[in-house]
Hints:
The structure holds two protein chains of two kinds. By secondary structure, chain A is mainly alpha-helical. Chain A is about 65% helix and about 5% strand. Chain A has a three-stranded antiparallel sheet with strand order 1-2-5. Chain B is mostly helical. Helix content of chain B is about 70%, strand content about 0%. Classes of the chains: A mainly alpha, B mainly alpha. Chains A and B meet through α3, α5, α6, α12 and α13 of A and α2, α10, α11, α14 and α16 of B.
Amino acid sequence: MSHGDLSFMSTLTDPPKEQFRLSMLVNDTRYRSLTFQAIAALVLALAIWYLGNNLIQNLRAAGLNISYDFLGDRSGYDINQRLIEYDSQSSHASAALVGILNTLLVAVLACITATIFGVIAGVLRLSNNWLVSKLMAVYVEIFRNIPVLIWIIIIFTIMTAVMPGARAYLGENPERELVFGLFAFTNRGIYAPAPVWNDGSMIVVAVFFVSIFAMFAYRRYATKLLYDTGKLLPMGWPSLAILILPTVIIFFLLGQPIGLDAPDPLANRFNLRGGIQIGAPLIALWFALSIYTGAFIAENVRAGIQAVSSGQTEAAAALGLRPGRIMNLVVLPQALRVIIPPLISNFLNITKNSSLAIAVGYADITATLGGITLNQTGRAIECVLLLMLFYLTASLLISMGMNLYNASVKLKER
Amino acid sequence: MSDNKNNNPIAFVATSVIPESPPPARETGIYKWVRENLFSNIPNGILTLVAIAVLYKVLSSTLPWILNGIWTTSSLAECREVLQGKTGACFSVLAERWQQLLYGFKYPEEEYWRPNLALILLFFAMAPVLFFDLPRKLLGFTVIYPFLAFWLIWGGSIMVPIVAMLGFAAAAVVFQKLGKGSFAAGFFGAIVSALVIWKIGGMLIPENASETAMLTAVPSRDLGGFMLNMMLGVTCVSLSVPLGIALALGRQSSMPLIKWICVVFIEFVRGVPLITLLFVASVMLSYFFPPDATVDLFLRVVIMITLFSAAYIAEVIRGGLAALPKGQYEAADSLGLDYPQAMRLIILPQALKISIPGIVNVAVGLFKDTTLVSVISMFDLVGMIRGPVLASTEWNGVYWELLGFAAALFFVVCYGISQYSQWLERRLATGHR
């Protein structure tokens, strides 16, 4: 092919070279998106400039500036419910840390109990028992349709207005006995026994952890044996024995190094001494979040179990599996794929709803950083921004975990 | 064989049908039902007994309390005198303070008919939106309703809502005219024309209009009680649906900048609790307005709750958009429709239909969350109960009657909405796509 041929071809097939015209910015789809994005960027920049300008002017008028130095200042307030050392001489930053730990504490506790309530209610709602399934339906509807704030207030009121004062448990002949001799339910919260770690207790704990490890090793060995040789070892009771027996034996061999420090009605005339006190606000928040979110989880569990078609159960039964194994090996793995994603978003909701602690005076991050610290220092912008940053981080971490899990249980398709 | 039939030599073959006997007693009627549904096996029987015990415990403690309730006294102390140590509720607090619980403690008493009328009209305005079978002409009233309700509840000059409505009407007309040619021209033209009308109208309204008005003006800080919950719920849901649609479309957009603005906004709002956004409304937002502007707390709260629910509604609608088969998008393209036309005529009608139950769920959640405004010291129903009513000397200690009343109100509304949503789901299940 010669050079002349090529040039001839190109004059035939090439479209005429287009000149860029201004109207193409609106009419040509290739450029229109650029135009719109430029407009959006402009509007965004203008909005940020406008809001920022207002902010600077307002701050100047009020004689304020944006600074996070207040976090190092003395906080000057006490917090009853705390997981780490803290007093009114500590800084605002450590108050915020106490708040963060309290938020995480109530969130984790409520996630565990809400899951338990939800699974029980969801399974019972599918029960053949007419009365029980109707009762569970009533539970779900009542708790889902009333605001969680009202539930928190109701349970807090039960704790503070109905429970007796600590004095009822005091003295030689108390009005009320300690429950099991260990627990006292008072209007300030629940007094529970605290574990006492004596010499040698670490050995018991270590043995316990080793036996957890041993239990999983045994289960893995039994599964491998089953797949390799078809020999079926018992799973349930040996696991339980491996988990519990060594710890119990060591515990008694070492002379019971872990004791219980129960609340003592006789030590003091005005209050119970000893043990640990779980404050009424924590209990109200924990319990209210659990039953409220439990109702939502119950619906998820029910939907998940119903999503597994009955043909699966029948097929498993036809293969000769027993009911327990049908549940464990066939129904649950498939139901969990449906249940877990909404379950995690319910955990997210618990974490976010735990900010309602401020309504009952539980010292979570919203009540310390967004409440008392904000009011004392007047640093509204800084406090609210830090508060949002914390919740955003927590939510993103949880949803990252959810995405990882989703990826791992996704149907493996070829 | 056939002739053997009548004179059968074999003695034990019956020649006639034995009459049907009734099933055994344990296989019929209530006995069978109870045995199958309550006592089919031992664990089931135990469950039933436990359930009956729980039911008895709950009913035996609440029923006498409700039935012995006192409705006519004027304080808790009098209630206790009347009851003389018997269990019984003191519902007098509801009889005495119901206006405060429903309307807040500052809304003028002789004006209660205004929010009542607004509530009744709300049902008429919502009916054509909720039930597709009603004639479409009724939507006209739905369009007028927001302005009418604003005028009824806040009172003041009727010119304000009329000018606002004229602005929107002008925008709609301009959009109709210009939007046929190009969506963008119609869109921006509509915004400009509305702004022009509002500016002119604002100058036309005389300064003292609200003093000579037909309805006395009520400032927003005087709104309260359950009315405040209802207003926040209805306003924020209806404002956040269009915003949510825009965010959902933006999140699906092929333009990276617009997509990322929407993604960041949605994920940010969904990641923080509503209460922090309410803190923003109460302590932080005023820093971002011009120094001389005073935006009242109600409006600031409406802005933040609307942004909050818009993010959730956007996610619901995104689900609806994703559920549409790809063929629908391609069909719209192959018909030569441009993006706004394709969305308006093909995609959104189907996607919204799928997402209605989800939107209703968000609406229920949002309505429950309006109680959170009590935390930033607005006197909604919960705020009224915890504040003025329980703090008063007469009613200090009447917890259960008040909290039960609040719970019952919310239950009725939320349960009603969720029943509607289920009805809708059943109806839509047959005919979408």
